[in-house]
Amino acid sequence: MTLDERLIQTVPSERQIRHQQLGFYAFIHFTVNTFTDREWGDGSEPPSVFAPTRLDAEQWVKVIKSAGMKGLILTCKHHDGFCLWDTKLTDHNAMNSPCGRDIVREVSDACKKHGIAFGIYLSPWDRHSPLYGMGKAYDDYYVGQLTELLTDYGSIFSVWLDGACGESADGSGRKQYYDWERYYSVIRRLQPDACISVCGPDVRWCGNEAGHTRASEWSVVPLRTRDTEKTAERSQHEDSADFRRRINAGDEDLGSRQALENEHELIWYPAEVNTSLRPGWFWHESENDKVRSLDELFDIYLSSVGGNATFLLNVPPTNEGLIHPNDAARLAELGRLIADSFAENIAPEAEITADGNAIDCVKTDSTDEYYMSERENAEIVIKLPRKEKLGYLVIKENIRLSQRVESFAADVMEGGICREIYRGTVIGYKRIVPLGGAAADGLRIRITDSRSKPTVAFIGVYRQAER
C-alpha cells in the first residue's frame, strides 16, 4: 500500500469530529492557588483558604458564551490535590472549605442551562494525597475520582489530562507511573463520547502555551506522537517564560508526506491550541491590567480555529468567584468581532463551479454532500453577483474522507483578471483565508497538490466588516 493510500484511510472518529466542530472553548482554572497567589500549589494548603464570597458559575458561563465559545473545561483538581466537588474519597475538597459548595455541580448545571458543553480537567499528579507514588493504590484512588466525575455530572465532552508527574508530598521522592490505559478504559466505558486530550488518544497539544500555531497543522500524524506528552518532562517544572516560548523549528512539520514517508503507523490526532487570557493560568490581582489585547486574541482565533485546530482559552475567576470585569469586557469584544467578521456570507449568492460544472453543494456547511475532484488537483471558481470588499474566505474539506489537500492557493478576481492573495498547505476541517478587504467580483481556489482526489465540503465568502 502506498503512503497516500495509507494517509487517506486514516480518518477521525465521530467524537473527534464533534470536538472539532466546537472550535473555540474555555478553560477555567480555579483552586486554592486563586487565594494563595500561586500557579502551582504544593498540597499543604488547608481547605480554609478556599473562600470565594461571590461565586457565580452562571456568570462564568455567560461570559465565555459572550465570546462565542461553545464549551468549558473546569480544573476539577489541579496538582495541589484540592477537589472542587463533593468527593467521597478525600476530605481535601470544597465541601470542607468556607465555600461549602459542589462547584463542579454548579458549573455543569450552568453549562447545561446555557447550551455549553462541559468538560473536566483532573490532574494525575496529586501533591496532597498520601497515596501518590504508591502504584496501584494511587491508581485506584485516581480512577475513583474519575468515576465520580464521569457518572455524577452529566454528559462530558472532554477529559483533559496533562503529564505532570512530580514527587510525592511526603518528601520521599516517590513518583507515580500512571496507568494511562486503565484511565482511558474507564473514560471510554463511562463517557464514550468524550475526547481524551493531550495525554490521550483523541486530541493533541500544539506544543506551546503561548497561542502560537504551526503554518501547517496536520491531523494525520505518526502513531508515536500519541506518547509524546506522557513523559512530558517540561510539564514537571513550574510554568516559565521559557516554557511558553514558540515551539522548536524541528517540531514544525508533523504530517506532510515528507515527514510521514518512513512512518509505519498513522493516526488521526488533531491539534488543540491552549493559552491563557492573562500571563498566568490562575487569577492574580497584579495581572488585572495584563489581559491580552483584542487583536492578539483574534489573531490566535484565526490561526487556530482557522488553521485546522481548536482553540482552548483559559479564563481564570477571581478570589471572589467571578470573572473579572476586564476579562469579561475583552471576551465580549472578541465575541462581537468574531460574529461581525463572519456575519455576511455571500457565497450562497455566487455562482460556484469546478471544471465548468456547478457545485452548489459547497454552499451548505455539511458533509452530507460535497465536491470531489476527479483529479488530484482542482480549480474552483466563485463568481460574485457584484464587486465586493472581502474579509475572509473559509474552506472545509470533508474530513470523514481524511485530510487530502497538500497545498492550495487562493486568487481574487476583478474583471476577469486573477491575482494570487494566499498560498498554503493544510485545509483540513477548516481554513480561514484572510482577504484583507480586497475589492473583487470573484475568487479562485486552486488545489495544487493532494493525497488523492480532493474534497471540499464548504466554501464561505465573507464581506469585510467595519471595525
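Second entry:
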Amino acid sequence: MDKYQQRSFLLALLLCLPVLAVQAAAPALFEAEVVVSDQTPAQRSVALKSALGEVLVRVTGQGSVLEAPAVQTLLAGPEQLVQQYRYFTEPNQEPPLLKLWVRFDGDAIRQTLQQQGLAYWGGERPDTLVWLAVEDRGNRYLVSADDTSEVHREVAVAARARGVPVVFPLMDLEDQARVRYADIWGGFFDKVVSASQRYNPPAILIGRLNRMPSGGWASRWQLEMGGKTRSWSDSHPQLDVLAKQGIDDLADVQASQLAITTNTAGSTVVISVTGINTLAAYARTNNYLASLSSIRNLQVGEVKPGAVQYTLQLNGSMQDLTRTVAIGTVLTPAADGMPGTYLLRQ
C-alpha cells in the first residue's frame, strides 16, 4: 500500500469512527470523605449532606452556592445521588478515626446545575505550581515536593477538598540555584516565575506564611495565571484554617475564569484541528473535546489529511472554550493565528 492509499484508508476509518457526545464527568470531582462517630443511619445521613455540600462547592467553585434553592433541594435528599459509599478507619491515627467515603452521581449533579443556570466547573483544572516560603518562629524554609511539614500537609488536604491540583517544586540543585528564600519573602517574583518555566505550569501560586507572636498565622498570596496577576492575604489562629482560606481563594479565582454558567444551549461554532495523523491522535482529540464542560455536543465535519474539522455546540461562549483550551495540554492555537484553528500537541 503506497502513501496515498494509506492516507485514504486512514481518512475512511476516521469518518467511520463514532464521535462521543459528552463524556461522563471525572469521578474524583464527585467523591468526598467525612469523619463520622459511628455507622448508624442517622450519622450517615448527616455525613452524606456534608459530603455533598463539599462536592457542590468543588464543582461550582462557589462557596455561596449552598444557599441556592436548587442546591438546597439536592442537600435535602443526598441519598438519591449516592452511587457508592463505604466506611474506613484512617491509618496512623490514635485514637482510630472513622470516616465515610462516598461517590455521588456526577452527571446528575452537572445536569441539575446547568439546568438551573448555576456555574459548573468540570475537569478543566490547571495544575498550579506552589512556591511557598514559611517563617515559623525563626525557622525559615521553602516547601518542596517531598516535604513532610505540617504546612505541606495542610495545603495538600485543602487542595484535594476543593479539587485544585497543586504541585510543589522539587527544590533540587537547579531550583536552589535559581530561587532562594529571600527572593520569595522579599517579593522578587520575576525570579520565581522564570524558574517555574522548567515545570511549564498553567498557573503559579506564590505564598508567604509566617507565625505571628500571638501564635496565629498570616499569609500573603499571589497568583499568576493566563497573563493576569491576583493577590490576597489571610490570617487565622489555626494553620489548617489558614491553608484552607488560601486554597479557597485560589479555587474561587480559577473558577471565576473557568466555570461555565448556562441553562440553554450556547452557540454553534466550527473549529479545525491539525496534527491528527493517526487513529490514536483522532481518538485523543475526540475524547478531549468531549470531556470539556464548555462543549455540549460535537460532530465531525470535513476530514483532510492531517486535519479534522469539528462542529461544536457550546454550553457557554467561544471565549469560554478558548480559556479552557489555553490551560490544557492537548491543543494549542495554530501558528497561523486564525480563530478556531488548533494544533494537536504531540
